[in-house]
Amino acid sequence: MSRLVQCVPNFSEGRNRAVVDAIADVIKGVAEVKLLDVDPGADTNRTVYTFVGPPEAVADAVVKAAQKAYELIDMSRHHGAHPRIGAMDVCPIVPISGVTMDECVEIARGIGRRIGDELQLPVYFYEYA
Fold first, then answer.
1. Which of 14, 46, 87, 105 could cross-link with 40 by S-S, CB 3.0 to 4.6 Å?
2. What is the pTM assigned to this prediction?
3. Domain-located, residue 30
4. pLDDT tens per residue, the chain (129 residues)?
């Protein structure tokens, strides 16, 4: 059975299509990752991306997308109807096939470590992670 997880990160940009597309392109550029949906919202000024793949590939896509968001989204100028805490606001990791919730927690923590180490950005965990 193949190991698959779903990731549904929310990024704090829903109005600038160039930024929305740049983040989508980074995700699509990771081998074995399939971008299923991109849902920007102008009122909330945030975009929900949905993608699936093997855990390691999904983790790479998240870190690369977080880096792109950090480069392109200026949170000091952000306005939107939805509360937010950062350029990548939430990043759920969901078990799909051959992966447990406990493993998803470890994947999320690994992503957080990488973002902290590689991008020097703070990471906050919630719920199971």
1. 14
2. 0.94
3. yes
4. 699 999 999 999 999 999 999 999 999 999 999 999 999 999 989 999 999 999 999 999 999 999 999 999 976 777 776 667 778 989 999 999 999 999 999 999 999 999 999 999 999 998 888
User: Does a structural domain hold residue 11?
Assistant: yes
Domain for residue 71, yes or no? Answer: yes
Per-residue HEC secondary structure of the chain comes to CCCEEEECCEECCCCCHHHHHHHHHHHHCCCCCEEEEEEEECCCCEEEEEEEECHHHHHHHHHHHHHHHHHHCCHHHCCCCCCCCCCEEECCEEEEECCCHHHHHHHHHHHHHHHHHHHCCCCCCCCCC
Domain count, the chain: 1
Residue 125 falls inside a structural domain: no
CA pseudo-torsion sign 8, 10, 16, 18: negative
Boundaries of domain holding 115: 4-119
List the CATH number of the domain containing 79.
3.30.990.10
Among left, alpha and beta (phi > 0; psi -120 to 50; other), residue 29 is: alpha
